[in-house]
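Cont'd.
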Amino acid sequence: MLSADRLSGTMSLRHAVLGILAREPMSGYDITKVFNQAMVDVWPARHTQIYPELSKLLQEGLIELDGKGPRGRKTYRLTEAGLEEVRIWLLRPDPAHGQRHEALLRVYFLWLLEPAEAREYMRREAEYHRAVLGLYEHIYETIPPSHPAEKLRAMVLEWGIEYERGISEWAEQSTPVAEKIVAGGKKRR
Amino acid sequence: MLSADRLSGTMSLRHAVLGILAREPMSGYDITKVFNQAMVDVWPARHTQIYPELSKLLQEGLIELDGKGPRGRKTYRLTEAGLEEVRIWLLRPDPAHGQRHEALLRVYFLWLLEPAEAREYMRREAEYHRAVLGLYEHIYETIPPSHPAEKLRAMVLEWGIEYERGISEWAEQSTPVAEKIVAGGKKRR
DNA sequence: GCCTCCATGTAATTGGTTACATGATTCT
DNA sequence: AGAATCATGTAACCAATTACATGGAGGC
């Protein structure tokens, strides 16, 4: 079996923080915004997770204080050791591919619903993913492809667009199929 | 923003357990196998999580003891209340779509590597997903489409095949692109 | 003066993984 | 007799979410 093991435990959050700081010094507040804007669809994170992580990274010498600003603002920059740490992470041959997908998990159990309810579930999924597709296409237009990091982000977004296109089409095509499957199960009882 | 909130907190594990028991009475050991075979790519789970959950479900009257077998084997069956609980979950309009994807997260930071290393990363991703695609195609052939649950599983697998095909193609096409992006970044410094 | 956004943190809880632990049955 | 698989559980730990908590700066 290709997955079942190694779902996390690789501490991606800390490496993502280091990777973000590799571009330019930032505060915890700024980093939080990056997570919930540019990175929200691959790795969301809240400030409540970021601030403690920054403390740890500082203590371990992977980042250092860069400066202070108004309202207690503190910016951090990456140290040489921190850069080394991200590089090692990037070269590790074990990115986690296993992911939990609640919307797909539910599909397994649609036979417990009425056929019309199952159809409605799939229809909503299709609708949702079409909406996200539109959103991604819009964001894609607005990425300034200057720094390599932005070009890589655009590259990931291209996959995101493909993904949303694919899953919305699958959900659309599967909507009547699901209804029939569930109806077939009821009849035979 | 379409995600950022509601990543979990919907307690999918317990509902998945109930959904599995909806088909037929089973032991914790059997349920674990289902999670790590049929459901491993949408919701993996270990026995260490299942046994305590079964205790809770039993206490809450959502399942009940069905029988005992050799080696202390205990099978459970779904109660009416348990079936109701899964149905309510399936009809809730909020399946979590946000997911953490470490392999894609790393792509954002490939500019911190040498161009050849970045290329190698993407090449490996393509390779990995082509392998999973082959695996899924093989599994797809071997699903006996008798019970509606199996037909729904086949439907989900169809998406899985599409997904792996799409992402492996994307990774393949992006391999030279990533290398160029990273090389471009080095030059300009 | 008030509202919004900036900015930082802690604590409690939940969900999930890893490690620890044990024993019975079946197959070879 | 020994190995593999069946079978069940607990405890420690880590990652992530939710709730709690506070205050400064800037715009209207």
